[in-house]
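Morning. Coffee machine broken again, so started the prediction first thing and wrote up yesterday's gels while waiting. Chain of 445 residues, entered below exactly as on the submission form.
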Amino acid sequence: MAASNILNKNPSAPCCQVDAQERIGENIPRLTDAPRKGVRSRSKKEQAMNFYRLSVVCTSIATALIFPMFAATAQSGTLATTPPMGWNSWNHFADKVTEADVRAAADAMVASGMRDAGYVYVNIDDGWQGRRDSHGNIQPNSKFHDMKALAGYIHSKGLKLGIYSSPGPKTCEGYEGSYGHEQQDANAFAKWGVDFLKYDLCSYMDIMKLHDPHQDPRKAIAMMQAAYEKMHQALINTHRTIVYSLCEYGVGSVWEWGPKVGGNLWRTTDDIRDNYRSMALIGFSQAGLEAFAGPGHWNDPDMLEIGNGGMKANEYRTQMSLWAILAAPLLAGNDLSKMDETTKSILMNKEVIAVDQDSLGVQGNRLGPPQIWVKPLTGGAKALAIFNYVTDDEAEPLTVQLKDVGFSGSVHARDLWAHKELGILHDSYTVTPPPGGVVMLRLWQ
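Came back before lunch.
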């Protein structure tokens, strides 16, 4: 959960996060908002607005003060050497998710071919937690009977289990958080066989306010970093390798300090919604963050909405292509047991997945407006994505100069959505992407 204006710019701050619309570099007119299944409650977000407004303040001083506190560890560097791929329950099921839903997702990942395409994490988001026993040990609620048995089932499918908690007393939806029980919870997760933890800030913001009623942004961010480091150390103490996903919506320029607190991936934005405007604002706003991504630590623009029904097929291809160019985690968020063939073809486009999972581990960058992006690949190849972000007007041709992509001379080209060779390109390439859609190429010499 995150405040809806997390990327709003504060003109009075000497250094601040960049507004998503400004990062895009272009206005995106005539896009419509639509409700999303499972969107988190806005009431908690509204209560947190004052803190979020502080997050736009430049945090370099706080970062410098905090980093010495964190002992470097090898764990974050040996996990998630490519962006994690899998499924997360939130976007479709929200906190109504059940053990049966999770098992069905695992079954579908195998039967559909998703596992073989690289999707391996089956992540339970908010809504699994019950109460603590008399010793303070977290218990699942009545929708989940035996977490260790569930993990065993997931592992028997050649998959991995992910789970969700918060550094605060409560999660975003009011379930039990890990505050004051960090090591106990980490031990429980390890005992159950958990392989991935998403740690969502949520009610910990109330703790920061309690200890710092004046809401000094440097102190608030220092407390937040310390809370994430505390769980990081707890995970290390379990001696189980668990991918650590920081979910705090880009507060305090998390990309600058995420690795220092053991993060393998970190959310850079507010929650995504299943409509083109939300997806485009979030995805295109990642321009400028490429220096902070690489093997073991990835910028996370939130989960995939592909297959949830709020966008057209071309728009879902845009999300898949853009997330691949961004070397972003690919976590499907739909009902995997009810996918149509179009959804399967988008999620399991192995050529696009290969761009995301390229071992070079470089996040792509925008060449400039309009939305033309390029990502270096192993062996000197490059992925080129040409987006048309106008959704309600006639599509126009776009031309890319090969020298701007970094090539001198002719190149070989392959269309990754049409799955066909385009032959040799000389000097430039002109194409007309469909409205809201994309043309994605692999180029090499």
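Residues 20-358 form a domain with the TIM Barrel fold (CATH 3.20.20.70). Going to sketch it on the whiteboard this afternoon.
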